[in-house]
## 1
Amino acid sequence: MTAITTAGTPGVNRFTRNQLLRTARLFATDPDLERELDLGATQRSWRRLDATAHLEIWLIHWPLGASTGWHDHLQSEGAFLTVKGELTEQFWSGNQVHDRYLWEGEGRTFGPRHIHTVTNLGDRPALSVHVYSPALRGMTRYALLDNTLRETGIERAGEQW
């Protein structure tokens, strides 16, 4: 894969969103992927599979009902793909909440500052691959109050996860 330089940001390499989704699909085909996490765990769990300054790849296990809470990925663009099970993404756009469902093999891309929450509302545990460019520096957390998203804080990479 070839990194591209983001216009207006000298020296910052990014992958295109299509490249990020293709990378997620590639990692999702690993036959040993399910051995990376305890799929019987009752709490959401994750493992960073690889990282450079320009690209970061995570594997996340989603027990029934597990959710991320509202957040963005600061300046990172991203993609994620449901490997097993099904996930529901709610995202904030046009000052309202929209729903998207991602069944096994389905993925999506998003830009920087994309605000969303991802939840396993299915009937079995789920597994997903997430890819970010540049590597995550943190996440802004939000609360949905009275149909308005309000920032509640910023988690910095390496401090909370």
## 2
Amino acid sequence: MSRTEVPAGRLRYKDLCVDAVDAGRMSGFWASALGLAAERRGDNALLVDGVPEHTLWVNQVPEPVTVKQRVHLDVHVRAVDDLVGLGAQVVDADSFRWTLMTDPEGGELCAFVREPDRLPRYRLYELAVDSPDPERIARWWGDLFGVGVEHPADGGDFCWLEGVPGMPWDLVFQVVPEPKTVKNRIHWDLWGDTRDALAAGATLLRAADDDIRWDVLADPDGNEFCVDVE
């Protein structure tokens, strides 16, 4: 896949990236949690299962978790205790139909318990993004991906994108009152043309250079993402 294979004016999902202070430890956690295999890449790690769109990078960074994550992973689990055994902690097991947890470095995630015969091998269920205006930012991304925005039948304060080209799970946007304050520790990489994202209102944070082959951008809510220029 390359940007020349993506329809003009559109972007396509490529892979997911998670920041970690200890990439070795966190790659082991996420590999086991998601049903992937970890391969070290210098200080970083690559999690794979043979399906390119399942690829997840664990990138080592110096900054620890300091605030609630605005992007988090929702995962299928056989039992919450399986994640606890990997180093996660339970934050709230009673308020929702899922269990709110933190990973070994304190980043939030949500566990959705499944019957054993309904537990998939690849266990990333969906990606959730906080926003003061989920409808607006969902439509922004939907336009770039070429998909519509879905809404719950009961009129809940969230919405989502499904069927995004290349994306093997739904992208959910949920309302929060607080503004973004620090760099997201989870972001997605895309195939496409950076100019299409900029024309739609994205901000260029860093252009491809001798050290990186991708452009780093932010959407109108400030969420970082990368567009591969190859």
## 3
Amino acid sequence: MESQPQQLILVEKSSNGIATITLNRPKALNALTREMMDQLAAVFRALEEDAQVKVIILTGAGQSFCAGVDLTAASEVFKGNTKDPNDDPLVQMEKCSKPIIGAINGFAVTAGFELSLACDILIADSKAKFVDTHCKFGIFPSWGLSQKLPRIIGVNRAREVSLMLRPIEAEVAERWGLVNRVVSPPDLLKAAIEIAESIIKNHEGLVVEYKAVIRDGMKLSLADGLRLEKERAHHYYANMKPEEFAAMQKFIAGRSANTRRTGSKL
């Protein structure tokens, strides 16, 4: 009897709108092959089009999030990794309008590091470690690590991480603002799901718009970002339906009344 081929990318959807993507090549520490990259890009395209999915969680099977590109397939991967945006998982993650939570278990190395930086919120387990090995192997970054990391942790720290190959362990990653929080390994997915559920409770349309304005504004100067926010706010309110205004006013009135009763702050 022939064995069934391994599913390299697993997708699980919950009834409340959470989709969990798992890189599933644990014996290879989830190192990426060309096939995995194509499948991951296709999964993000499909989830973007799925109206039932509100939040996406990305994690890895086994003891590692992603150990980078499988070097046995490096030539095939690097020669084609930017030619077709439909097959580029980072392009599809950047285009995704839905919040992406990275649940980082163990190693996130080079391409795995870049996958994590394409997420909107990062939760790491206490064994997580972020490593940039581009300079070790003579691989030029093309998934954003050279530009995103300095903006998150600072230019000098990023130089140390990338040029000296300094690993960033979980506690340091949290202190530097690279990850939102660190939890014990058994609690990683639970913590990611709790964050996803908190997001889902909010106004779905504005969650999508807010993610977009943060993403697009970060590419601009502060002055241009403020103008962008103002422009999108005007557009948002101009297209708000009367019943949406009424619902917002009702919510604000109820919150104000509750604040007066309890004496609590907003």
## 4
Amino acid sequence: MKVALGQFAVEIESEKNLLTCLDLMQKSQQAGADLLVLPEGICSRNIADPELVLKAAQAIDGPFITRLAEATVHNALTVVFCMHVPVPDKHNKVWNVQVVLAGGKVAAAYKKLHLYDAFATRESDYVEPGSDVPPLLTIAGFKVGLMTCYDLRFPELARRLCSDGAEVLLCPSAWLKGPLKEHHWHVLNTARALENTAYVVSAGECGPRNIGMSMVVDPLGVVVAQAAENPALLFCELDKARVEHARRVLPVLQNRRFIRPELQTKKTA
């Protein structure tokens, strides 16, 4: 499977972001990519106005997703990204939804489970957490699991997805800058890949707020492609034989002694 990672800085105007996405989709399709992974929160961003996540949120069938979906009608490109979607009957809450588009339709929509309430940031002020483990998808013959940004810090989700059969983990992100944050990003991506013998494909937003550093890590923890801090379109080939080799020489999924992780539906004290 040929994957593309589209890294860019999300702007305030959603129309500009839409045109950027459409351009990245066209270039990915022309390069023969099967899959394009874009960052988290791609509809609109303003670091001076955190409430923009509420004001700019759109429904799954709204104009932003609809126009991106239309661009996948006559080609084989699957596109993955995150954006904020209003929660019905809660004017002050949105979901952070990872959307998968293929064949002109929404193939999957995963509501982010782990909200970024850390390092003096509170995503939960505006975002409602999801309540379901994301589904596995089949893309170009690979079993694919979905994660979003802060999910990387929780090994249970990656292990659950790979226990269910995932060979590739996709992680659209907007990883905030800060002390040691680039180090955290590198360690967590490589750890999730190595401990599950799976590819991890993480597309990050760049710009004044976030680190960029989109990367692909192979099933033995090797970073096989990586962007820097500027806008980029990165390509990488994923090889199913590499997954099979890793799981043969390092059978951690077979050797584990713990049961399959289950989602906790209620917080404990």
